[in-house]
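subagent[fold] <- orchestrator: predict structure for attached chain, return tokens only, no commentary.
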Amino acid sequence: MNLRILAIGDLGNNILILKKFSKNLDIHLIDFPRKGVSKITYVSSEQEFFNSLKISQQVKYINKIKKNFDLCMVMSWAGARVAYLAGLNYVMYFTGNDIRTPPFEKNAKEPYLKKSVNNFNWFERKFYRIVFNNALACVTQNQIFHNHLIKYRRDGIRIDRIPVDTTIFHENVKPAELVKKKFTFFSPQRNGPEKGMELLWKALKLCKQDFEIIMIDWFDDRTEEEKIIIKNLLEKKPNQVKFISLIKREDMPRYYRFADAVLGQMRGGFTSGVEREAVFCHRVVISYSDPDIKYHLDGKIVESPYQPKSKDPKKIAEIIDKVVESEKFRQQLWKDEFEFMNKLSDPNECVKEWEKLFRDLFEKSHTIYRNTSKIKLKIINIFSNLMESLVYSQTMKKKNIEGWGEDEYRRLWK
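subagent[fold] -> orchestrator:
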């Protein structure tokens, strides 16, 4: 009998891919309403959305359906918040800055920014720490994120494999019908300091080869500091860069196939969605790979083959020029990346690890219901409803929130 998993919230389509390839998990995904840049995220007909942005209504709906499931899986703090308030046994899955700068950490800062990315008050920070502590398990990927996780929970679980939907991203895709006048890179990721935008800008000024970059008009806007950084960078846009409008996720493979090569992130040092997807579309990717970050796969320690191995703009420029001028180098680098990705992101292998984890967790918990009294749960919800009403009323005075997505609604207990 398959385990029935209630999933709340999805980032990077990770849960949708698990749902698609799993044979032993029946996953039902409920996501938050989307708008704006969220349209680039793939939406499945089997995916459900909350019909309200109010936390109390989301919790009320989950309480109606929770008896139909064995365990809960959440992505994002918004998903964890709902699961906690609904009294569920939930697994938290972290894939980025959600664990690097958790909302319970006072003055949490990214290493590339001077100011804090969070401005939560004491009550909010305390609440999110309780949400984190009450998770049945916390899971993250790769060495760098796992190191952050175990600072707060020694029982943090590491699953390095992260799946790619190989039914969408593969070589037999018809390329986008665009005019190509010279060697062309495609760069579809969100742009900003987190991805090393300023490092790429510096590198492009040092490049000797002639090429063009098609870049998505999509930028980090979490903080005012990031907005100012991006504004200054755009005023100094390199001549090689051409911006295009947001494209839907289902069109991404066609753009990968159209391009001669793909540009990934230049700061994090680990593989993100762009680096994984493009390789399966048989396109070489240039992306900074931290040599100190290793991957645990099938009992072996594996190093990423992505280039460059340094964030130095000179090194980035050298790799870009080499990819443009040498077909032999391009092909060999892609083969190395593809071999690595076949181990790291094969969806069937990734699903096996998650299926085993859920079986082990269910043997411990036996139910989706968290071990907490009804009285305690009712008190928690009373306080959460009071806080929600306060923040909601304050937000309404400033903006009309009808149609907002999760990103725009982040101050409502985000």
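orchestrator: received. Logging for downstream: The CA atoms of residues 395 and 412 lie 8 Å apart. Residues 394-414 have pLDDT under 50 and may be disordered.
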